[in-house]
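Following up on my earlier thread - several people asked me to post the actual chain instead of describing it. Fair enough. Here it is, all 266 residues.
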Amino acid sequence: MPQHSRGRETTNFSPQKLLVFIASLQLRKVMVASSSSNFGTTDDFRSTEKRTGWYTFLAMMTRREEQRLERRAAIIEVAAQLFVEKGYGATSMSAVADALGGSKATLWKHFASKEELFAAFIEGRISLFREEVSQTLASTGNVRADLSKAVLHLLRRILSEPSLVLYRLVIGEGGRFPEIGRIFYERGPKANQDAFAMFIQARMSEGELRKGDAQEAAGMVIALCSGGLHQRALWQDSKPTKKEIEAEAEAVVDHFLRSYAAKAPK
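Reply from S.P.:
Thanks for posting it. Predicted structure:
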């Protein structure tokens, strides 16, 4: 008989889907147990009935939560389009509700204010980026190599078109609506600075970098990355080349290490 080989499959479960999956497995165990020869007393069947009802209820509640999260994601996506196209000031909760085609009550059930909705939009845009920056800062024992990798990743991200659009939106609206600047800073630049500060502090503690204020040192990295190519891309709408980004990353690391490289023992 011909044999069919199957490729290795990887499934990413959300917490909600995982709960549904676990509930279905437990329910299957209950049904198998109820059909076995050793599972025939009245008390056994009552116990099975209770467990079956519980797992069914769990699955139903999990599905409802999944639907709620899906609806929330749809609202954020519609709001994102309006924020980018019209700006924060010109986007109202009523406009979002109209674009969704649903009631305002549904929108307010998920988000109590436009500020909260904008915060969710920002979080959705940069949460993965923030996690990736943290992951690239894992130490390999070579400070220059580790920093070069993380800085290069940071530059590629902040120079991407979605990031530049976000920066322009916040810059353009931040004067009239200070809350959006605060939201963006806390979830973007500040979070990235904190990630670099943790890495730098650990390297300082190991003697791989000169001891100093880790937050101040991390701020230097973020400031260097935010100049040069990033400024040119923001104001001139000029897309840098791969070589330019790589050269900028090396220059940032060079400048940083001139100030914080550990002195060689005499």
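The chain has a mean pLDDT of 80. That should answer part of your original question.
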